[in-house]
Design a protein that fits this description.
- Helices cover 21% and strands 35% of the residues.
- By secondary structure, the chain is of the alpha+beta class.
- The chain has one domain: Immunoglobulin-like (Sandwich), CATH 2.60.40.10.
- Strands 1, 2, 5, 7, 9 and 10 form a six-stranded mixed sheet that branches. A four-stranded antiparallel sheet has the order 4-3-6-8, with no helix packed on it.
- The N and C termini lie far apart (81 Å).
- One of its GO terms (cellular component) is extracellular space.
Length: 162
């Protein structure tokens, strides 16, 4: 009887102790980059520059009501990179990294189609890593910089070769 009791304790109590000893949650880290489209091309070119101090917001919306149920802001570093830490799952929500503001007055217009990036924030999708990578997002310069015409003509030449 004592042996049966010790086996039951081992089967029931030890897993609970092991579970309690492990950290309950690993935070996700949402990583991305913000750039300035200096040629107003709508995509990155060799003249594209990174924006330090840009504000980015992570927003998660309820799939049915589309109400924002989670929001957290981050700021880019000197290389235009940001990290936003998220402590909980958002498995049945639509989450996007969204441009908020640029500290560069002459590069503060969100580039259409590059102003947000969709993210999946759940561990129930086969992704083992806690890091989630957002596509690069960009602001456009008020006016294209000198030299952009030549760069864009190079892209046009490649397109005509096909």
């Amino acid at each position: 009887m004592a042996r049966l009791l010790s086996v039951l304790v081992a089967l029931c109590v030890l897993p609970a102790i092991v579970s309690a000893a492990r950290p309950e949650k690993n935070p996700f880290v949402v990583q991305g980059r913000v750039y300035c489209d200096t040629c107003r091309a709508g995509f990155e070119t060799s003249k594209t520059s990174d924006i330090a101090g840009a504000k980015v917001r992570l927003e998660c919306r309820d799939r049915k009501t589309m109400d924002i149920v989670f929001s957290k802001e981050g700021t880019t570093d000197s290389k235009g990179l940001y990290n936003i830490f998220v402590d909980e799952e958002h498995d049945d929500q639509l989450c996007d990294a969204v441009l908020v503001s640029s500290p560069q007055k002459d590069c503060s217009i969100p580039s259409a189609g590059r102003e947000r990036a969709r993210l999946v924030l759940t561990r129930f999708n086969g992704i083992a890593s806690d890091s989630r990578y957002a596509n690069a997002m960009g602001f456009m310069k008020d006016e294209a910089e000198p030299g952009c015409t030549e760069i864009l003509q190079q892209y046009q030449a490649y397109e005509n070769e096909d």
